[in-house]
Amino acid sequence: METQDLETQDLETQDTDGIAHSLARDGAVVLTGGEPSPRALTVAAALALGERLRRLFPQRMRSSSDGSPVHLHADSFDVVVDVAGVPVRRRHPDEDYALVQLTRSPSSGGESFVADAYRFVDALRTEDPELWEFLTQADVDFYGAWAGLRGLPSTPRAGRHVEYTRTGRRIVRRTDGAVPLHRDPDAEHIEAMLRRFGQAVRELEGTLPRFALEEGDVLLVDNYRCWHGRDAHEGERTTRILTVLTADAR
């Protein structure tokens, strides 16, 4: 289940064919040669995804001091705010690409890692059929653990960890917000499967290659296919994150 080291592509060469090839092959690519700025992150998204790019959501900053690990996850959230009486979406549960730009390097640690979730799920079919069946057949509430957060819709977001878009593109979700649906008769089993899923993902983390981003580098991830995370670090570390929808999104 190991994921190979990711290829790097230099943004200054504007080799869009090379970026597209790396992204299609590995599900993720590191884009180098950019400035650690909001404008550079937006330009990176346009250059990498081109005419497929449909919608960009507000960029957000993530800073941590002597940060603990960020475990494998797929970016996914559902946040709608009111702006002058008009509902405005700031995050989308089916955003299909995520771009993570390092803007400040820690003094030590903080290496990134990426897992091919397609490969992980396919292996489960023979290695753990019960977990595979849960991920592909059972509905959960993906944000139920975060109920009460401002901007998060009150209606439960029901779905399966493994689903498909109308064009056949596979989505493999990974979030710490998943809980059983309200009064689900199989709630006890679902809770056990969620714990088992989490444990399997933690075990996978230890097998993955690590790589260090430089300030300005952008990790571009196919959010339907890959999960990403980072190790613990010392000192201050800051990233800027952009999630998008393309023409291929659900």
Automatic annotation (TrEMBL):
Keywords, sorted A to Z: Antibiotic biosynthesis, Iron, Oxidoreductase
Keyword Iron: yes
Domain called TauD/TfdA-like: residue spans: 8-238
Oxidoreductase among keywords: yes
SUPFAM superfamilies: Clavaminate synthase-like
Single GO term (MF): oxidoreductase activity
Pfam families documented for this protein: TauD
GO biological process: antibiotic biosynthetic process
Protein's name according to its UniProt entry: TauD/TfdA-like domain-containing protein
Protein's organism: Streptomyces nanshensis
